[in-house]
Amino acid sequence: MDPITAKQEKFIIENLDFFTKTLEEMAQIPAPSNHEEKRAAFVKALLESFGCEGVYMDEALNVVYPYHCQDAKEIYVLSAHTDVVFPDMEPLPLVRDGKILRCPGIGDDTANAMAVITMAKYVAENKPETKQGIIFSLVSGEEGLGNLKGTRKLMETWGNKVKGFVTLDTGYGGMVTGAVGSTRYEITVSEQGGHSFGNFGRPSAIADLAQIITELYQVRVPVKEGTKTTFNVGIISGGTSVNTIAQNASCLYEYRSDDLTCMSYMKNCFEAIIDKAKVLHSGVDVKIVGERPCGNVCGDLQDKWIQMLLDVQNVYADTEIVPRHSSTDCNIPLSMGIPAGSVGTFVCSGAHTRQEWLDTESIPRALRTVMCLLNSWLA
Ligand SMILES: [Zn+2]
Fold it and tell me: Does 3.10.20.600 match the CATH number of domain 6-179+294-375?
């Protein structure tokens, strides 16, 4: 992998001021998951001001710039998310502290969104030839409550042509190459209930649910080399008073894995326990409250894609990049058999805390790295 050209280096240096100023402005725009309206509008206007043709916003509040995609048979995606975990609807507090920028969401994922935007600017201004179509996307709903809404919508629209997906997320060295999937359930038990003394002997929703939970905790997670599978009951509630046989009880249960066969093993175990419980107790009900697919159906294609991403990062890296598995926007393409990886480029810290900060001295290297990635897609 070659370093960027002198012309590209010049572009980056000339745009550093623009980058920092726009980053400071965008970082303050509130964008809790499912309320990215203001930030999406800001991004769309910005891209249009560069002359990016065909920019659109969809109903998920994704802002998308398809470049050379019209007749393309193959498309690569460069993405970052606009939402932050902070519920604020007021401007987020930004403080400049020498070379450090402090603001909730600055590294996760505002700076990365700016990197995607800067590449879109480069392409709009220089109109380079490409080997395939490229989509620059600023997507909504990556964080918890968003349930990957933005990327689901993006892949619903373009997925049949997408041959590779990269999301820029979190900080330098934070590379994610495999998807941890999760399925989350609410289990509810309802019984007739009654007085604890007068109606003693009637079934209790709490006792029934406790029995189900005990069974869930008897499950042995599958042991398969290079994979990890977990489960948890995280919340339990129910009952009325100490002298009432409980009418209702419910809990939240999830299992997670980075392996598809382990996920279906956990699903089978869960369903067997629930089926048995339904025979034993009258009012057992199960609702899925969250579902993030896990990947690992791309085999060799994924290995090649990850190697390409490592080669790109190694051009300017000063430490070893160690990939890990996590839940990111990559879960969606990976579950469709499309190779995908998440790459962090800026030096930043404190993601998901109000103390989050970014080292502005890391901006040039981050932009050089993302430009290298872009180069691998240019003709
Ligand atoms: Zn993120």
Answer: no
Q: How far is the CA of 358 from the centre of ligand 1 (A)?
A: 14
Domain locations along the chain: 6-179+294-375, 181-292
Distance CA 376, CA 379 (A): 8
State pLDDT tens for residues 144-203: 777 899 999 999 999 999 999 999 998 999 999 888 999 999 999 999 999 999 999 999
Following DSSP, what letter does each residue of 336-373 receive, concatenated?
A: TT--EEEE--B-EE-TTSTT-EEEGGGHHHHHHHHHHH
For residue 349, the CA-to-ligand 1 centroid distance in Å is 12
Architecture of the structural domain at 181-292: 2-Layer Sandwich (3.30)
Q: pLDDT tens digit string along 35-79?
A: 999 999 999 999 999 999 999 999 999 999 999 999 999 999 999
* pLDDT value of position 295: 66
Tokens of 331: 């879960």
Distance 21 CA to ligand 1 centre (A): 21
Rounded to the nearest whole angstrom, what is the distance from the C-alpha of residue 356 to the centroid of ligand 1?
12
CB 195: neighbour CB atoms within 10 A?
11
Q: What's the CA-to-centroid distance between 329 and ligand 1, angstroms?
A: 9
Output the pTM of the full model: 0.83
* Separation of CA 107 and ligand 1 centre (Å): 8
